[in-house]
Amino acid sequence: MVTRLIYLLLFVAPQPLLYLYLRARLPDPAQPARARAVRIALALVFAVFNLPWVLVAQRALSGSMWGVGRLPLTGPWIAWQLLGWIFCALVTVYLLGKLGWWLVQRVRGAWYVVADGAGRAPEPHREQPRATHDALLSRRRFLARATYTYAGAGVALSTHGIWSAYRLPDVTRRTLTFPDLPPGLEGLTLLHISDLHAGVHLGEDKMQEIVQRANALAPDLIVQTGDMIDISRSYIPPYVRAFRELRAPLGVVTVLGNHDYYTGEREVIQGCRDAGQVFVRNGCHVIERNGAMLALLGIDDPHNWQVDDPQVADVDAALRGAPAQAFRVLLAHRPGAWDTAAPRGIPFTLAGHIHGGQFYLPVIGWSPGRLITKYVMGHFQRGRSQLYVSRGIGVVGVPIRVFTPPEIELFELRRLGG
Length: 418
What we know:
By secondary structure, this protein is of the alpha/beta class. It has 12 helices and 12 strands. It has helices at 2-12, 14-25, 32-50, 52-62, 74-117, 133-166, 204-216, 236-243, 258-263, 265-274, 312-319, 338-341, and strands at residues 170-178, 189-193, 221-225, 252-255, 278-279, 283-289, 292-298, 327-331, 348-351, 378-382, 385-389, 407-415. The strands form 2 sheets. Strands 1-12-2-3-4-5 form a 6-stranded mixed beta sheet, with helices on one face. The longest helix has 44 residues, at 74-117. The protein starts with a helix and ends with a strand. The relative contact order is 0.13. The model has no long low-confidence stretch (mean pLDDT 86).
């Protein structure tokens, strides 16, 4: 309880600090009526955008955070909180820079006084020049424009993020080459679906559209790497109705994700089987094509919160069922399993789980997902082993995706030099 309260206060802290800073700096004291209107507007804006904290705090302190995503307008609220942190960070940088510049000026001034005053009588004290009214007004105007810019950015960011969270997934097409790919698997197309999160933010109608888009790609094989259902078992029947129409000549193969555990692993597995899928749990499913064998190694999501858990025991258990001559593909919900797959010579690993962090800063290439794993999204290669981490389709908790659009991936497997 105490720990949760501390974290809650840390997350809330930027909002009152930002409000007090803007309330002191933004209004122009030379125009009392306008200054009063600005203060009232600031109070209303901060009250409205921070109202969800009442419900979030209740859930955070009671430990039932899974319901946060069902609160109304959580997308704009998260965007507002994020911008508050960014704005406070920029203000802090500005103040630290100003302090540093002041210290430099003081040191330089003291040095010049010593150097110029050597051997001379001290001059009378001269008053330092003060900032003019125009300079103070200019600072206030700059702060006002910066505030309006950030408010506009908040609206644009939340609008884009919410739209991106609810849109249909992009189709990412990649041709991957492997030196040891058997000739019989040359040109095989594999569709990867991850992190659907059927639930309050993704209903049956959208699931049907996703299935139609997947079938239109006509892949040879479809794999799912977990998190089909989001928390509630009531979403399993709509998932079954939609995904029983998913078609591929070599079948649909699925593994568990952490949210499937939260929902109920037995019920989720039964639902996937009712939809006609093959379920693999720390084992191997072998497919034959043109005389070649493809071994799909499927592992369960680990029951822990370890960062980049290599899942050594799970991967080894799955490998024991794979024929020696088969081309092996590892299906894992969390990408940390690649740290075991690569040294064991598994050529290709598919994973998800992170959703790209649901927020990405393109300029500096950072995502909150970096706090969870070093494999946030996209393609990775280590020697002859390759990993692809999907951005997934659904969302966790908050329906927002900023510069991390949902995706499904269509891979074409080719033999290197073939």
